[in-house]
């Protein structure tokens, strides 16, 4: 500088250090699985009207754009959740190997499985409640639900037919009616367990009460099937 009033020459800024490239992990199956898990929890808790896509996306660790890309809009996502819920219980039922058991044992196993599945998956019961409130309007549009239930109904029908042939079951029992009765015995008890506990002065969720209920259901259904 020639004098105190001279302006110093500007120092050029240091060259910017390039940021490390962001590693993008492409995992469409994992992303969809996270979306479905978050959506199942959201719809089971808030219903179709109260559920929020923003919350689902945040819980799944993604954004709405990716959610719409993988699944679709809110109604399509809700239907996908319903279809997945039905698919899961039907797939799990196929592992029961009812065809390997004597007919009474097969029916007892089916009752026990249905009872425990409802206990372990309260979100499934919640989704059933919600869709029935909507008169199954979205479920009617599914192209999968009826087809996934046909093998299950046939599985029960085969057990009944074997029971009739062996002389341990009476003829004329409809497989669909039987399953509705089995599911209803579990569903009503569990969906109303809190009010029933108050009314009858019992803790109907306590282990002894649950065991007693299962034994009662098995006895009731098997007696109804006897010749």
Automatic annotation (TrEMBL):
Chain positions covered by the region annotation Disordered: 1-21
Residues annotated as domain HTH tetR-type: 29-89
Protein's UniProt keywords contain 4Fe-4S: no
Pro residues bias: start-end ranges: 9-18
Family matches, as PROSITE patterns: HTH_TETR_2
DNA-binding region: 52-71
Keywords linked to the UniProt accession: DNA-binding
Pfam families: TetR_C_29, TetR_N
Database matches in InterPro entries: Homeodomain-like_sf, HTH-type_TetR-like_transc_reg, HTH_TetR, NicS_C, Tet_transcr_reg_TetR-rel_C_sf
SUPFAM superfamilies, alphabetized: Homeodomain-like, Tetracyclin repressor-like, C-terminal domain
Key word Nucleotide-binding present: no
Protein name: TetR family transcriptional regulator
Biological source species: Azospirillum melinis
């Amino acid at each position: 500088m020639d004098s105190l009033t001279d302006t110093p020459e500007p120092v050029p800024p240091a060259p910017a250090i390039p940021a490390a490239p962001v590693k993008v992990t492409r995992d469409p199956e994992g992303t969809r699985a996270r979306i479905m898990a978050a959506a199942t929890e959201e719809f089971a808790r808030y219903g179709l009207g109260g559920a929020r896509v923003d919350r689902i996306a945040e819980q799944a660790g993604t954004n709405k754009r990716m959610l719409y890309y993988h699944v679709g809009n809110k109604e399509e996502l809700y239907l996908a959740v319903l279809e997945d819920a039905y698919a899961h219980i039907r797939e799990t039922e196929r592992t029961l190997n009812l065809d390997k058991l004597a007919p009474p044992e097969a029916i007892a196993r089916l009752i026990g499985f249905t009872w425990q599945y409802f206990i372990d998956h309260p979100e499934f019961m919640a989704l059933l409640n919600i869709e029935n409130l909507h008169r199954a309007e979205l479920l009617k549009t599914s192209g999968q639900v009826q087809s996934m239930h046909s093998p299950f109904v046939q599985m029960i029908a085969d057990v009944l037919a074997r029971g009739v042939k062996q002389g341990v079951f009476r003829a004329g029992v409809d497989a669909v009616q039987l399953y509705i009765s089995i599911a209803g015995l579990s569903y009503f008890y569990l969906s109303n367990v809190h009010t029933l506990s108050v009314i009858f002065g019992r803790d109907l969720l306590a282990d002894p009460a649950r065991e007693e209920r299962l034994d009662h259901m098995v006895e009731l259904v098997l007696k109804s099937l006897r010749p």
